Amino acid sequence: MRPGDLGALTLLGALWGGSFLFISVAVPALGPALLVELRVLLAAVALALCAVAVGRLPALRSQWKEFLILGGLNAAAPFTLIAISQLNLTASLAAIMNSTTPLFAAVVAAAWIGEELTTRKIFGLLLGVSGLRYWWG
Predict the structure, then answer these.
(1) pLDDT in tens, 31-67
(2) Which positions ≥6 away from 76 have C-beta within 8 Å?
(3) How many CA atoms are closer than 13 Å to the CA of 109, on its beta-carbon side?
(4) Which helix (H) or strand (E) holds 89?
């Protein structure tokens, strides 16, 4: 891994993990529902501005129902559940639990759609679980 790649990965980790810290600070003050509404609204505005900048807003308008469903299932619902959980959990524990998403996705893909679990994927799953076990205590 090149130093620039390592720096980008570190920055991404800080940004991703930092969101859980901000959620734990904001959720007691705003409540889970309002916090998620503001977060999703901010993301929607940012994405709309990006779509305008690249000239893709007309395609966005024609598929608004699909984007609404996708946003609800992939953003609003998980963000709401994370915000509710952070009323009782620490930011670090919520981030660790959220990090299990790719591990569960690999297992579900193998069971549900027949994705092959190669030796390399199984090694990755075991490595991920052992890393979680190390951090979780």
Answers:
(1) 999 999 998 899 889 988 998 898 877 777 788 899 8
(2) 36, 40
(3) 13
(4) none
CB 23 within 8 A of CB 83: yes
Closest CA to 124 of 105, 97, 111: 105
The structural domains of the chain, with segments of one domain joined by +, span 3-89, 99-137
pLDDT score recorded for residue 118: 92
137 is written with which tokens? 């205590």
pLDDT tens by residue, 96-136: 888 888 888 899 999 999 899 899 999 988 988 887 766 66
- Four-residue CA torsion sign, 54, 57, 59, 65: positive
What are 103's two structure tokens?
């591990």
Residues 6+ apart with CB under 8 A from 28: 87
Q: Is the dihedral of CA 11, 7, 100, 65 positive or negative?
A: positive
| Alpha-carbon separation of residue 128 from 34, 42, 65, 122 (angstroms) | 33, 32, 36, 10
Q: Is pLDDT at 92 greater than 90 in this prediction?
A: no
